[in-house]
Fold each of these.
Amino acid sequence: MLVAGAGMAGLCAAARARELGAEPVVLEKGSRPGGSMLLSSCVVWRYRTFEDFRAECPGGDEELQRAVFDGFDEALDWLVSLGPEIVWEDTPNPRTTGKRFEPRSLTETLVRAAGDVHLEEGLPAEPELPLLFATGGFAVRYAREHGLLVRCNPWSEGDGLDFARERGATLAGDLDEFYGRAMPAPPARIREEDYVRLSQLWDGEARVVNENGDEFFPGPPGWHESDLAQAIARQPGGTAWFIIPSELRDDQRVVGLREAGGTVVEQDGELRLHVAAAVTHTQGGIEVGPDGRVAGVEGLFAAGADVGGISTGGYSSGLAAALVLGRIAAESAVR
Ligand SMILES: Cc1cc2nc3c(=O)[nH]c(=O)nc-3n(C[C@H](O)[C@H](O)[C@H](O)COP(=O)(O)OP(=O)(O)OC[C@H]3O[C@@H](n4cnc5c(N)ncnc54)[C@H](O)[C@@H]3O)c2cc1C
């Protein structure tokens, strides 16, 4: 069995397949394992109730959401049993439950469990089957095509999506929807280890205007603020200004933005922070059944951000989807 991608989904899939007696080979295009998982806050979580999940992500495929929700607790126990370092025993958000892991420790643990991981190695032209795609969606391509910032691993270009599509796979979810954040706008330079720290999350405290000074975002953002990032992406230049009181000049979000070389303008008792929309992962992708099989293509499986239509219309844990669907896809593939 071949697995493309050594991020959360691919490593979980390979680790599970090995546990079931298979000898999976993981091919990773990048120069390191861990994908976006390694750069993440590494909170693996679910909504406390399925109704809340549906309410937050109303456009998502209900069967897939069910699979992720129902499989989560057992999958999380399994992940813990592998021995990665745990940072939080539960989430601080009363609507969610899960654990926060130390990302480097989680990556190293999963690489060990996956066994045979080859770096800087893409797929051969005619790969053997079964083949499991876990290439992390197409955030990098999407950001480039739309003039947005990248806030994820630099290798998720949509290779799994293209491969599956060429072989007749159908797509699911909205290919124009992404999960993202407002980040310091250029000329700020953001190192990938600062993706979490420099996120401009203001929880509705900032007034938001575009480059023309127009307010374009109605009401406070959702708790994940990905809706605001997507609205900024649709503004001229994919940028906006967050306007906050000057007293907040020593707030760590402002300090971080300044230190990264971003633009802060102080005028009339207010601070204006220049921000840009950044893409963390795409939400649309390959149509996959709740058993991890790519619809209509024999021998092909997919998991993680390659799968379309899990969180359409909102946000749920990408790491949880990668964990649960990675395990399920591996179980289907080795049977
Ligand atoms: C800053 C940040 C914070 C985040 N915080 C959280 C959080 O707290 N909780 C949460 O649930 N989610 C979070 N996420 C999202 C989460 O990291 C992703 O949803 C998750 O990593 C998706 O898993 P994946 O395996 O699909 O993709 P990834 O983990 O990105 O792995 C994809 C892998 O595929 C590789 N690849 C690409 N193309 C090929 C190819 N052709 N052949 C072989 N390999 C290929 C890539 O190099 C990469 O290693 C965060 C992400 C970021 C960037």
Amino acid sequence: MIKADLHVHSCLSPCAQITMVPSVISQVVKEKQMDVISITDHNGCHNLNSFAKKIKNRLIPGVELTSFEEVHVLAYFSSIEQALSLCNFVRSFLPKVNYDPEIMGYQIVVDEQDQFQRLEEDFLGIALQLSLTDLIEIVHSYDGIPVYAHIERRFGVLYQLGIFPRNDQVKLVEARSREGWAQAVKSGFVVLSNSDAHTPDEIGCRFTRLKVEDSNPKELFNILSMPSRERILSVWD
Ligand SMILES: [Zn+2]
Ligand SMILES: [Zn+2]
């Protein structure tokens, strides 16, 4: 059984603490004995390579996308290249806004030594001009696994839309409470429980257990791509 926190923001996310850099996250992951994490920044992937170098075999490449309906969707990938290709594609659907990092939060690209590389100039904390249906199709077209994030909380699919849309392409959701978990299970979903950490101390405060011998991220990706409640266990399972 391995412990996975598959929703962690880095300093690229404008809402995350600037201390969410590779050395700090890697240290906390070790302290909290997480076997694997996913870095899931808002609408961007440009810290994935740096984290992969630091965290090595403990990283599933991911991103947290925002649809036009303001629904957050996590997506996991089997390689960083696939994640980066998707992020490059959706970038053209980011609306252009005046972005002031002092007010809206810094979006910092770092290397694996935590060294500042650049500030991301396009504001990432905003809805893409893509419908939820289109977004999920796009994730699939890059061989990604889409997951409705924090379903019953603000920007979650149930909170925003009141229902789970009829879409057989999504099999996994992330819940924040037993009530959300129960609703998801009743609707036939497999449930993840993750931290959605924006600060170091939040990492691993919630995690998902995966029944697997080998914690190789490729193997874990396969388990997530064919989810079953026997092998993927939230804190309520
Ligand atoms: Zn979110
Ligand atoms: Zn998040």
